[in-house]
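Hey, I'm writing a tutorial for new members on how sequence and structure tokens pair up, and I'd like a real worked example in the thread rather than a made-up one. If someone can provide the structure for the chain below, I'll link this post from the tutorial.
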Amino acid sequence: MEYIVKNKVEALRTKEEYAVELLFIGVILKEYSEYAYGFNPKWSGIFKWLNSLRDKERIKEKVDIIKGRAILKNLLKKKKIKELDLDLFKKILSWLECTGDFKEEVFRLNIWMDFLCEKDSNYVGKVLMFALKEGEYLLKEGQYYLGEYISGVKSYLSTYELIHRNKEDIIYCGKGEIQYIFNMVCAEILNKVYKEKFLRCEEKIVFAPACMKQTLKPCPSSKEKLGDVCKRCSKECNINKLTTLGKSLDFKVYVISHETNLLNAKREKNDNRKCKLSQHGEMLRALSQAFKETEQRLEHEEGSPFHAPPQAVRPQGHSHPSSPGRDHMMGSLDGTVKGLGVWKQPPLPNCHCPA
């Protein structure tokens, strides 16, 4: 934190927020080190170009086909790492950027890169080893204490490649157990960090994933700046139920197809009076989301797309991340809006949200 203040990097955050970022470093070291080490950097420019083209809706579908094949051939080749050093960390950041799935995480971790570049190799090695061990501890303890919430992940990961092979979302949809656990634990931490500021907000908004929509007929929702708005076409639709709950508890509901929709949204005037209550899977940035998601900067500091503190919602009473959890979210929201003593649900493996 001394480095942040001395170099005027940003408005100083809480210790908890920086701890979440350090833990995330351990998570990615465990998940992606061998992929990053096996990646040929000459492809970096091509992936950055493809990622930029995905913002053009007219050609996005064709770009995704090309990118999906390129990912399989270039980003998913493993090579045994030699040691934990600055070079490896740089490779991981480059690899994460090329995937296009960790925009805000890369933004946050580049600050750590600048910090580590000022240190000697021994210090860097110790920091990375510490982060890795913390990540491994998180996985071990998370499997023990949170195992009931991720019991469907292993079986999902054993077959997901059959569906996502040659698709651009194969990395995003293939996140391991450790990332589910990380999202749950860190969302709880960040909820507590932002809770008081959240409660002071005049307006509350819920961002829900598109996979919660009814699927019996085309959705007639209308598009607005922050997302789609429910037209109440079906009593069975969870978005309709959520919208009804919002009217009684005084919050608005917007449906987003992907968390990057939040990141790309333009900041509104007086947005600092609003707060975000999200049911979407990867909000750290924080948390991501944490950077949130995290990254997608849904946090409260000046200059973020949403100058407002978020809260995240978990479903209650289900044994693993699957579709039944969406119904339990309805009950979770009531308690969250009133008490805010909840944490975030992990991404649902069987949700086929378009990227």
